[in-house]
Design a protein that fits this description.
Layout (H helix, E strand, L loop, with lengths): L6 H4 L5 H23 L6 H26 L3 H36 L1 H14 L6 H17 L16 H12 L4 H18 L12 H5 L7 H6 L5 H21 L2 H17 L4 H17 L3 H15 L1 H11 L16 H9 L12 H6 L33 H16 L9 H13 L1 H4 L3 H28 L6 H11 L3 H10 L5 E4 L11 E3 L2 H4 L5 H10 L4 E6 L3 H10 E12 L12 E9 L4
Parallel strand pairs: 1-2, 1-3
Antiparallel strand pairs: 3-5, 4-5
Length: about 600
């Protein structure tokens, strides 16, 4: 039997994994820069670089996906990537000086924005401790490494949510990084910034507050949550923002290169997360409209077909083959033979997010501008959301496609009853773009002037908060012991997993009711979803336990009524152990922190 591998087993120990994270990120930047210098696909240098950066990360993602389908030895792939990284650095090491000079020049001209970006970079290098990252965002990559290929985990329902982002995380895991996804999230801010550089803003240079205006892009507290996670929400939003700018360029230049870029962007972004199907579809409609006007419709459809077939279709096909649903579990309700367990899981995904209704609508609107509770202290946009009020100031509205994007996007998410503010990031970025393109009409507005002033102080607060977060969560002493201490204090289920490891022998297989951080498991496991979401009868549950050769079972204590019979029939009483825990979260103000107790026992229901 192969040794069971956990995240710590596959990746390098702290702080060497941080070095690998930075090295891999610089490798991607360096390679993208060299390719963009050699192949001028778009005339604008910034856009050309970003194009190849997105091509590179999307290409690596789909490559690892196909390797996962056919199977691979992660050690061989690790050697391959390390050789490739070293060769690129040896061949283009002189270009590192050029990158440093560009960075220094930017920092010198934009000290405050640079400080704000640096603060976000620091939190992207902190240990991954949020629940979703420790579950499927990292866990899927670890499972692929363990099995040598992608397998259909029917027991692990969050496995169904995997998109192209999970294979970018797999890249980090293979090379040796634990939080590569977070630094890619940070790169989203650079994509947004470079996208803006492609606009002709020379006519606004005389405005003394233009630099402060650009601070609005990076001053929202919700960016802290999005960057300090391996959930690719902000990366997708940055690509949507870039696509909106590209649509403006296409309308003005009729460039075929831009059509290809937008088609690539749409195809990649809808493979990151299911929620991007909505903005992706709206971008598609706008692109088709402009292509029709520019008589480029055939070229556009050919590009969409090509990029969708390469970068999106394989993920949907895999889901259809595995689950009978290309965007599982969302379309489960449309099946003739509906699986009630999957329907319950689909509902549970949004259980922590209250559905929008007339009663909570005022609170929902308020949450754009300020937190409605201490637990939601970082889940709001703040002053950037006030830009919405400036739309009424435009005497002559430019680029009306942006208004269509905003209104349609808003309509769909409101119809879905979505109250989670992160889903509206694309809308706020689009509003910022409208204001940027219409500055001449709002520059003298008192509202505009006050937003700029207030946002400066919000930006300053974000910098301070980011440095405080870095100080709290960075492992003191930069050692493995210090790293584990951070996880003990803030990472979901870390202490429970250590307790299970201590009380179960190597090679054993466990089933737990309350352990979600599957990336941290030290033992082979049947996912908690079997007990939490699958409404199995006692006979079905015992059959599942036997078929999967489960050695130990861990339940919440006192034992729930539906599991008492399981405990009576399958527990070896001499093996029973109990322990009290406190639910750990990265947000010390979270309303989800509570004390509970677990009971562990050896399973006697075996073949």
């Amino acid at each position: 039997m192969l040794k069971f591998l956990s995240l710590d087993d596959v990746t390098l120990s702290y702080p060497f994994d941080i070095f690998v994270t930075i090295l891999l990120f610089v490798f991607l930047i360096l390679l993208s820069k060299q390719i963009s210098k050699k192949y001028v696909f778009l005339q604008n240098l910034y856009l050309n670089f970003v194009f190849f950066y997105i091509v590179l990360i999307s290409g690596i993602s789909i490559l690892l996906f196909f390797l996962s389908i056919i199977g691979f030895d992660y050690v061989v792939i690790r050697y391959f990537f390390w050789v490739l990284i070293l060769l690129i650095f040896l061949k283009f090491y002189q270009q590192l000086n050029e990158l440093l000079l560009i960075s220094k020049k930017f920092i010198k001209k934009n000290i405050f924005i640079s400080l704000l970006l640096t603060s976000f970079l620091l939190i992207s290098l902190l240990p991954s401790i949020d629940a979703d990252s420790l579950d499927y965002h990292l866990g899927i990559g670890i499972d692929i490494v363990r099995e040598g290929k992608l397998i259909n985990r029917q027991d692990w329902l969050h496995f169904r949510l995997a998109g192209s982002g999970e294979y970018l995380n797999l890249l980090g895991i293979i090379v040796g990084s634990k939080n590569f996804g977070q630094i890619l999230q940070f790169s989203s801010l650079l994509i947004i910034l470079l996208s803006l550089f492609s606009l002709d803003l020379k006519k606004y240079e005389k405005l003394s507050n233009i630099k402060n205006f650009n601070l609005i892009l990076f001053s929202s507290p919700i960016y802290i949550v999005l960057i300090y996670s391996q959930k690719y929400q902000i990366l997708g939003s940055s690509i949507v923002f870039l696509s909106l700018i590209l649509l403006k360029h296409f309308h003005e230049t009729n460039s075929k290169g831009i059509i290809s870029f937008i088609c690539l962007a749409i195809s990649f972004v809808i493979s990151l997360k299911h929620s991007f199907l909505i903005p992706g579809f709206i971008l598609f409609l706008i692109l088709i409209f402009y292509s029709y006007k520019k008589k480029q419709l055939k070229f556009t459809f050919l590009n969409l077909f090509f990029f969708f077939t390469i970068f999106s279709f394989p993920y949907y096909l895999k889901n259809f083959i595995f689950y009978g649903d290309p965007i599982s579990p969302i379309l489960e309700f449309m099946k003739i033979d509906k699986n009630q367990n999957i329907l319950a899981f689909a509902k549970s995904i949004t259980i922590a997010e209250t559905k929008l209704n007339l009663k909570n609508f005022p609170t929902f609107v308020l949450n754009f501008f300020s937190p409605i509770s201490l637990s939601a202290i970082f889940n709001f946009f703040g002053f950037p959301a006030l830009l919405i009020f400036l739309l009424t100031r435009f005497k002559k509205f430019k680029n009306k496609y942006l208004l269509f994007f905003i209104s349609t996007n808003l309509f769909f998410f409101l119809i879905l009853g979505q109250t989670s503010i992160r889903y509206y990031t694309d809308i706020i970025l689009a509003v910022f773009l409208i204001c940027t393109l219409n500055l001449e009409y709002i520059k003298n507005s008192i509202i505009f002037q006050n937003i700029i002033k207030l946002n400066f102080y919000q930006s300053l607060a974000i910098i301070i908060i980011n440095f405080v977060i870095f100080f709290i969560y960075v492992p003191k002493g930069f050692s493995v012991i210090a790293y584990n201490k951070v996880l003990q204090n803030y990472a979901l289920n870390f202490n429970e997993i250590l307790w299970i490891e201590k009380n179960t022998p190597k090679g054993s297989k466990i089933l737990s009711e309350n352990i979600r951080s599957n990336a941290l498991h030290k033992r082979s496991f049947l996912a908690q979803d079997v007990l939490k979401y699958m409404n199995l009868t006692e006979k079905q549950l015992i059959k599942t336990i036997i078929e999967n050769d489960v050695d130990y079972i861990i339940l919440d204590f006192p034992i729930k009524k539906k599991f008492i019979s399981l405990y009576d029939k399958c527990s070896i009483k001499e093996s029973v152990k109990t322990k009290k825990f406190e639910t750990e979260t990265r947000n010390p103000l979270s309303r989800y922190r509570f004390n509970y107790e677990m009971i562990l026992f050896k399973n006697s229901c075996k073949n």
